[in-house]
Amino acid sequence: MALASNHCNGYFLNAIGPCNSVEQKIYINLNDTVPCVRLLNATHQIGCQSSLGGDVGVIHFLESEQNLEYVLTTGNNPPYMVILESHLFNRDVMMKLKNGSSRIAGVAVIKPNSNPVGAFSPHTTCPNENTGVYSESYDPALAHCNGTMWNPNGNGLSYEEFSFPIFSLKDDNGTEVIRQCYMDHNRAVNGSVPVYPLCAMELSSHMSAVTDTVTCMRRSDTSGLSLNPEQVCDPLGNYNVWGATKGLNNSASGHSENETVVIAAARLDSRAFFHGISLGADSGTSGFITLLAAAGALANVTREAPPPRTILYAFFQGESFDYIGSSRMVYDMQGDKFPIDLDNIHSLVEIGQVGLHASEGLWVHTDPVSRRNASIETEVKNLTDIFRSVATSLNISLGEPDVSQPLPPASFQRFLRAQPIPGVVLTDHRTSFTNSFFESMYDNAEYLNLTFPAGLTPEEQFNYVTDTAKVRPSLCHVAHMLYGFLIQTKNPWFEAIVSPEDLPALIGFVISNHSPPQMNSYTWVRGVTPPNATEPAGYCVRSTTRLARAESPAFLLGEFNSSTYSTWSESRWKKINARIFLVAGHDLEMLTLGVGLAVLLVSLLITFFVNAKADFLFSSGREPANATY
Fold first, then answer.
1. What are phi and psi of 571, to 5 degrees?
2. Which long-range contacts (CB under 8 A, 24 or more apart) does 390-397 make?
3. What is the sign, positive or negative, of the torsion defined by CA atoms of 184, 187, 193, 197?
């Protein structure tokens, strides 16, 4: 966490130049802070927010869970801004703070530089419980994760509503400044009561939306009678990315005659408790990088010897929030708004969590309900046999769970809700997730053991070749993608292709092909800078990559209370800010107020007196009009 460079408060370690304003002399702004924000669905609001002007509290570093009594009952200077080390950021502590919120102004969590020991997942034990295929109507025995608790470490913290702001702080010099301020002014010594001035923190993260998505979308409706409608929330969404081994006519929609497609899918998104700290190394990134690597390996093969069925690569956004991306693609296929429809799909293969963090093998999951159909069963067996053969050739262990076990949370479930389709989901877990940090800020590069020898520069880290990659050089591209997505987007490989933010172009580069021009998209690739040149040698890549809107059909249909589609929306906000300062005691504040009022009263009396005596005080002696000289 960095400190704003234009402040010169005594605790600022890198002050430059004199202060030019009163505000700069009082406050230290904190950068690299990440807030918890408010999300809404059809029935609830979750997340955090501050009051309109921000919330202020006396800083207290919580040293242990037993120390909670001080901030909740016995402390003399509430409300408190509680600073938590990562090991205390758990459901028990947070719920106690929530229940004692009248004495809590806010919470700041210090994000450690290395992952904690143990497990932490703020998601639920049954992700996307109500929007997958397993419902009372599909198979009551499998509904609500009755068969398998997929995320046993889930504590549901991300789905709680907090009435105070909660921020994440990066553990760096800025955190040390806060800690030193606390030690100097706030920490009780030998049972003594801290005396003013005390070190305080202000957190500002006021959210505009309240109650639920139905309410916030009604208030944001620009077609209403309000003269000045204000957008208070937005539907969660982004873009799906898809491409095929041969061109599909993007100008046509609906059923494509004589076209049979195998969908190879993965999710792009992830989430965490704090807005923006959600790398999803195992939960999302491992899957889509694996699919990208497979697509890249097959690109030349499929160009030279086209497969009997078209492979359609689909990368879905918003899957963490009730399958936004996959449900939108299914909706478009059903409504003839996609180049193919569901009847064109031969089968679906999805790559899930494949980080292999806690296991040595992979597992092929299937749907036990659709397999009761003989034709589906035949195709599913063919798919599993193909995967088993490939795994054997690569010396990878591949297993199949009990045939009665349902699918794990996966985009495939949204296709099955529409109609029976043969398919498999490839993961690194047989039953419950092996990912101890599912949908948390700790699901990062370190969790996948993506580490480097000490002392390497960023460029040296990027070029570092692991022992595994030395044996299998094809894994170098995978290592480069992992480095780019999980550690540093500004790296030579990404910059030679596209800007780091242009994921669709990257996917297009990987699965580029030579389809008819009218069925292609074209992307300008920056390329590398040749020797003795100052500009990169760019070139054009032709591919079938397309973008498709990943926004829940609920918002297209105006069904904001839908139980079929995702209804998640995100509140808008105007100001996100965190700062520390010294706050005076109540007696001093009252004395200052009293002196200020006295000065005001005296000023008013003087003004009244001067005004009343203005003719006398400001008159000048005048000579008689008839005076002569």
1. -65, 150
2. 391/362, 396/361, 396/362, 397/360, 397/361, 397/362
3. positive
What does each C-alpha distance from 543 to 60, 234, 240, 312, 514 come to in angstroms?
56, 32, 16, 12, 7
- And the tokens for 391? 């795994």
φ/ψ of 33, rounded to 5, equals: -105, 145
Q: Which residues contact 471 (CB under 8 A, 6 or more apart)?
A: none
Q: Are strands 233-235 and 166-170 parallel, antiparallel or unpaired?
A: unpaired
Residues 288-325 have pLDDT tens digits of 999 998 988 888 787 788 889 999 999 999 999 999 99
> Is 593 exposed, middle or buried, given 0-12, 13-18 or 19+ CB atoms closer than 10 A?
exposed
State the Cα–Cα distance between residues 363 and 386, nearest whole angstrom.
13
Amino acid, res. 549? R
Reading the block at residue 69, the tokens are: 């009594």
Among residues 465, 39, 52, the alpha carbon closest in space to that of 216 is found at 39
Q: Is beta strand 423-427 parallel, antiparallel or unpaired with respect to 361-365? A: antiparallel
Nearest to 566 by CA among 411, 430, 398: 411
Strand order in the sheet with 310-316: 397-399, 361-365, 423-427, 345-351, 261-267, 310-316, 237-244, 546-551
In DSSP terms, 242 is beta-bridged to 314, 546
Question: Is the Cβ–Cβ distance between 571 and 208 less than 8 Å?
Answer: yes
| Distance set, CA 92 to CA 65, 117, 438 (Å) | 9, 17, 19
Asked whether 125 and 241 are in contact (CB, 8 A), the reply is no
Q: What is the dihedral sign for C-alpha 381, 386, 392, 398?
A: negative
- In this structure, how many other beta carbons lie within 10 angstroms of the beta carbon of residue 358? 12
Task: Give the integer Cα–Cα distance in Å for 542 and 427.
Answer: 32
- Residue type present at position 162: F
What is the reported pTM? Answer: 0.88
Give the integer Cα–Cα distance in Å for 100 and 123.
23
Residue reference for tokens 């003013």:
196
Q: Are 184 and 11 in contact (CB under 8 A)?
A: no
Establish whether the linkage from the previous residue to 79 is cis, with ω within 30° of 0: yes
Q: Is the pLDDT of residue 419 over 80?
A: yes
Mean pLDDT of the chain: 87
Q: What is the pLDDT of residues 82-111, one digit of tens each?
A: 999 999 999 999 999 999 889 999 999 999
395 Rama sector, left if φ>0, alpha if ψ -120 to 50, beta otherwise? left
Query: What is the β-pairing status of strands 45-46 and 166-170?
Result: unpaired
Q: In terms of DSSP bridges, do strands 261-267 and 345-351 run parallel, antiparallel, or are they unpaired?
A: parallel
- The residue whose two tokens read 């105007």 is 574
Which strand (E) or helix (H) includes residue 615?
Answer: helix 614-618
How far is the C-alpha of 440 from the C-alpha of 320, rounded, in Å? 12
- Cα-based torsion angle of the residue sequence 368, 372, 378, 383 in order, rounded to the nearest 10 degrees: -10
Q: Which two tokens stand for residue 444?
A: 């990062």
Contacts of 502 (CB under 8 A, 6+ apart): none
* Residue 536, preceding peptide bond in cis (omega within 30° of 0): no
Chain centroid to Cα 460, Å, comes to 28
Contact 428, 357 (CB under 8 A): yes
> Cα(first)–Cα(last) distance of the chain, in Å?
83
